[in-house]
Amino acid sequence: MQNNISLKPYNTFGIDVNANRFSTFSSIDELKSVLSERKENESLLILGGGSNVLLTKPFEGLVLKNEIKGFEIIEENDNEVVIEAGAGEIWHQFVLRCIEHGFAGLENMSLIPGSVGASPMQNIGAYGVEIKDVFDHLHAFEISTGEMKRFDKNDCAFGYRESVFKNIYKNQFVICRVAFRLKKNANLNTSYGAIENELQKMGITSPTIRDVSNAVIAIRKSKLPDPAVLGNAGSFFKNPLVDESLVEKIKATYPDIPNYPAESGKRKLAAGWLIETAGWKGKTIETRGVHKLQALVLVNYGGSTGKQVLDLSSEIIKDVQEKFGVTLEREVNIL
């Protein structure tokens, strides 16, 4: 257990705030041990890759970094395989390992920052695929009882960047292991975004899962900043779901507004397009700003506080609401 530790190395925004107490754990026994040292009513924060969090103030409590590793085939037949991975595994490395084994389903989610444990919590997704499409189950430690519990797909109540772990079970469980049901015979999804164009540029007409992964990596690298170089948390805002009547109203001024079918008769708008059209893409305010190649990404050029980044996001939300009547929702967890 360490005291008064900077969390700057543990969040991809590179925000320099301190935690009262900090420890790592690499097994359930270690988790139980560090939790036994938790003070009464002490606030608790579990960190994975720190890639979806904005720290706006010092954390007056105990921060635990999940470093549980593991990669195991727990079920297999001629068509499918179920892989269980430790929650502390780096997501992209896990995806590449599955691809090396010829297991399909995760290739569209290559290069997403963060850990395996955060993937079901956020129901992460990219290029037409979400965790719910490949998820089998997870094992999580219930903090109040000290017991392990299994959550199947229906138990997680997955939604757009949502799960029970972000709302009704928030801060009640520590995800320890996650299992994914993957295919041995790929059913490639290349129709979303620029994947097909990228494959054509690569001269590939009969792509493999590795080809799709490489295409996704190339696309992401071309427009998303590397958190190791420029502080960011990837997409800061969710793509908003709105009524069709609002889309038609916006079309009167912006007939080319991108929009897609969504659940419950709603339409999904591209938050990046809204932000860019509102004039924010590439805009810099002192030490923070909106990335010049992707308006969804807020960046810390160095020395920004979390509060300053949060204030920037509030200005963007206000501006988009005034211009389009659309209220953007932050995807990043604010602490």
Identify the CATH class of the largest domain.
Answer: Alpha Beta
Oligomeric state of the chains present here: single chain
| CA radius of gyration | 20 Å
The count of domains is: 3
Unreliable stretches, pLDDT < 50, 5 or more residues? none
Total strands: 20
Q: What is the terminal separation in angstroms? A: 22 Å
The main β sheet shows up as: 5 strands, antiparallel
Biggest sheet strand line-up: 6-7-12-10-11
The SSE order reads EEHEEEEEHHEEEEHEHHEEHEEHEEEHE
Keywords:
globular; four-stranded mixed beta sheet; Uridine Diphospho-n-acetylenolpyruvylglucosamine Reductase, domain 1; Uridine Diphospho-n-acetylenolpyruvylglucosamine Reductase, domain 2; 25% helix; single chain; 335 residues; Uridine Diphospho-n-acetylenolpyruvylglucosamine Reductase, domain 3
Structural description of this entry:
The structure is a single chain. The chain has three domains: 2-66, Uridine Diphospho-n-acetylenolpyruvylglucosamine Reductase, domain 2; 71-183, Uridine Diphospho-n-acetylenolpyruvylglucosamine Reductase, domain 3, CATH 3.30.465; 231-334, UDP-N-acetylenolpyruvoylglucosamine reductase, C-terminal domain (Uridine Diphospho-n-acetylenolpyruvylglucosamine Reductase, domain 1, Alpha-Beta Complex), CATH 3.90.78. The longest helix has 19 residues, at 306-324. α5 (195-201) packs across α6 (209-223). The strands form six sheets. A five-stranded antiparallel beta sheet has the order 6-7-12-10-11. The protein has a four-stranded mixed beta sheet with strand order 1-2-5-3. The mean pLDDT is 93. The chain has helices at 28-36, 91-100, 118-122, 153-156, 195-201, 209-223, 244-251, 271-277, 306-324; strands at 2-6, 18-25, 43-47, 53-54, 59-66, 71-76, 80-86, 125-126, 129-130, 135-142, 147-152, 173-183, 231-235, 241-242, 259-261, 267-269, 284-285, 288-290, 297-300, 333-334. The protein is globular and about 60 Å long. The chain has nine helices and 20 strands.
